[in-house]
Amino acid sequence: MSTGSGRNVVFDGSPLAISQVEGIARGQLSACLSDNPDFRARIQRGAHFLERIMAEDGVIYGVTTGYGDSCDVAIPADQVNSLPRHLYTFHGCGLGEPFSIEESRAVLAARLASLCQGYSGVRYELLQYLVRLLGEDIIPVMPSEGSVGASGDLTPLSYLCAVIEGGREVWYNGHRRVTSEVYAQVGITPLILKPKEGLALMNGTAVMTGIACLAVGRARYLAQLAARITSLSSLALQGNNLHFDPILFSVKPHPGQTQVAQWIHSDLRVEDMPRNSSRLQDRYSLRCAPHVIGVLQDALEFITRFVEIELNSANDNPIIDGEGEHVMHGGHFYGGHIAFAMDGLKVAVANVADLVDRQMAQLMDPKFNHGLPANLSGAGPRDRAVNHGFKAVQIAVSAWTAEALKGTIPASIFSRSTECHNQDKVSMGTISARDCQRVLTLSEQVLAAGLLSAWQGVQLRLLSDELKGPDLQPALRECLERTGELFELLREDRELEADLRNTVIHILDRYWVLYD
Predict the structure, then answer these.
(1) Residue 448 host element (H or E)
(2) Which of 40, 307, 417, 440 is most exposed, with minimal Cβ within 10 Å?
(3) Omega before 318 cis (within 30°)?
């Protein structure tokens, strides 16, 4: 796909980037469909080829036959057109909380990208309909639970099919509404799906892939934020800046690890080190921070490749080659690559949360924080006994970190045989992607607390003249200033829930400008 003028992402069958799906999901970019005659003709060839096979009484899985284990059941000619409605109707059994509006937009973008490859046998008109739903921001309400990730995301995507035909519910203007009411309000006519189109929409990996795109974007920002928190924590703890020296990392040159070390090194200067420091080595949560965050940074490279290949693939079944006039039956709906990517990503992310949790523990404890007050309390000597600073926040961070680490159990190893043993090996990719989102949420909470506590520690050093604000690197000064616009120095005990929630929101909005 190409990014056209301004905010438009043009869907034309060419490669789409994760960042473009993110932009559409976050409402920063708009989807539009190419009107190039060659692209339109390529899409239509598959649909016309299927129509001709059907007219000649050909047998096509899921078009003239039943689904899955019922593939040997022939569908009478006068019932073929009702097959898509039956498909999405009996799959309307999803449970759990619905995917967020942002996640659901990403799902639509991922499904559209796959169909635009031209191997699904759908009409150009269906692609136009998906683009219109995105453009009008009429987004299907899709329950998050019920997919085993092969034969694709059948149950959640059935809600997209039903919405196209005017059924079930949608998100519109931020509210959950009955689809038919919204269509009547906006002036949209439901589209009746052709025999292969229900299967083309449902029998693919769009849900896990769309969510994976969002997870990758969140994880990229989280890695950079963790590096910045490490820089602030090192300042607050009077750490040894030589731990991040480029020469040191030249002898173990993992690219992501080296990049993280360069980020932290650019934040700190050797002359910032306290002259009276006799410590050659800081504890691991400072000294080894590039090695922990670097695993995530390096993993993001192969994870991005996995996700973008899946995003730009035809991943339903059967594959329709309209040009060569072949119908090919396979298993491209299997989400193994996304499952592996998301299982790996959540491990790397949770390890970063654990790192920040350990840094925060150092900041709290007067046995290890090199002269900072216990629990980073900013209270004066008279009131220090009754004030407890970040004590409870550090307990909460331990809880969030533990839950994030617990959530790293790989979902992909829990394959179950289902659907009369037709789907006897499944990917669980959608569960992996959902788990990864949860681990990211918990980790962002940890980093919100870590950022505020590291900021508090630096402020206490500045107030005691152990640091000089003008001597700090500009990037750190800006980070301190922007955090100070959100958070007031904690002197007297106060409830910090609102501060933490607000900081998490600003993390999701990428409020802090971090590294290039």
Answers:
(1) helix 429-463
(2) 417
(3) yes
Query: Residue 171 forms beta bridges with which residues?
Result: 139, 176
Where is 103: in which H helix or E strand? helix 101-115
Active-site residues, by number, are 61
The answer to whether the CB of 419 falls within 8 A of the CB of 142 is no
Q: Which two tokens stand for residue 175?
A: 């509210």
- Say what percent of the chain tops pLDDT 70: 96
17-46 pLDDT, tens digit each:
999 999 999 999 999 999 999 999 999 999
Please provide residue 190's backbone torsions phi and psi, each rounded to the nearest 5 degrees. -55, 150
CA-nearest of 299, 285, 279, 297 to 229 is 285
What the chain holds in terms of domains, given with CATH numbers, is 2-204 (1.10.275.10), 212-508 (1.20.200.10)
The DSSP element (H or E) to which 357 belongs, if any, is: helix 336-364
How confident is the model over 99-130, as pLDDT tens digits?
Answer: 999 999 999 999 999 999 999 999 999 999 99
Of 301-305, 460-464, 465-469, the range with the lowest mean pLDDT is 465-469
What's the Cα-to-Cα distance from 211 to each of 15, 110, 141, 217, 388, rounded to whole Å? 18, 9, 15, 10, 40
Neighbours of 240 (CB within 10 A): 20
The tokens describing 272, both together, are 């910032």
Nearest to 352 by CA among 282, 436, 283, 296: 296
Model confidence pLDDT, tens digit, residues 160-190: 999 999 999 999 999 999 999 999 999 999 9
Tens of pLDDT, residue by residue over 277-332, are 557 899 999 999 999 999 999 999 999 999 999 999 999 999 999 999 999 999 99
Residue 172 contacts by C-beta under 8 Å, 6 or more apart in sequence? 137, 138, 139, 182
Task: Name the pairing type of β-strands 169-172 and 175-178.
Answer: antiparallel
* DSSP label of 96: E
Q: How far apart are CA 480 and CA 7, in angstroms?
A: 32
Reading the block at residue 305, the tokens are: 């490749």
The answer to whether the Cα torsion of 310, 312, 313, 315 is positive or negative is: positive
| Radius of gyration over every alpha carbon of the chain, rounded to an integer in angstroms | 26
Evaluated on CA atoms 222, 223, 228, 234, the torsion sign reads positive
